[in-house]
Amino acid sequence: MSESVARAVATVLVTAEPRAKVMSARKVARDWRLGRLDHHFDVTMPARPARPDRPELMPPNRMPKRGRAGSERGRIALIHALAHIEFAAIDLAFDLVGRFGARFPRSFVDDWLRVGADEAMHFALLARRLHRLGSHYGALPAHDGLWEAAAATSDNVLARFAVVPMVLEARGLDVTPTTLARFEALGDEATARILRRILDDEVRHVAAGTRWFESACRADRIEPETTWAQLVATHFRGLLKPPFNDSARDAAGLTRYPYRALAER
Known about the structure:
By secondary structure, the chain is an all-alpha fold. It has helices spanning 5-13, 18-33, 72-100, 106-132, 145-152, 157-185, 189-220, 224-235, 246-251, 259-263; strands spanning 3-4, 37-38.
């Protein structure tokens, strides 16, 4: 009998070392795609994924200033922060499969293991870029806001979709174009090229979250827009901040949701 997809996913979550986590994520996604894993959920996901000793995790309000945007220090700090987001996003995708996959068809696993493999690739590209700039992932502190949002929605798949892909990851659609333009202005085409790839992929990722949220709402016979607003008001502790990248949000299926109204509260 083949290994279950849940057991394989759990191996990614309990792997701490960054390169090993990337390799494990890619292997699980490949094994699923090649039919080597059973669509079976027989393992409980860990409450928290394993993390390396570095970076030091700090509350967002205690994070040190990154330095001037145009300075070498500021550029490395920004790339490090982006790498940390992508590292956390690997676990978010794999936890989603292992924690909630039994409720959904095989195509759910198809989508989210593909997303997890993308996040692993994004992290690897940014980590390599840091190395070429004379730094490394873990050299600077980081915060754990993404996983805290996952932990707060660990028992409610609709809340997980509403908060993680449809709010937190959608925020990346809003801010990445400005960040990309900053690196272009600095003449850092290598980093800008990575960010273009990430932005293209993240539209697809947010679209997957929106699509599965709506599918789950239909299954539960509830209305998506009002349900989303209620879940965000209940489970999201931050603020929805304009400006919004309406074209990217439209491509991801988000413009029907009242995020502007929530931002104006």
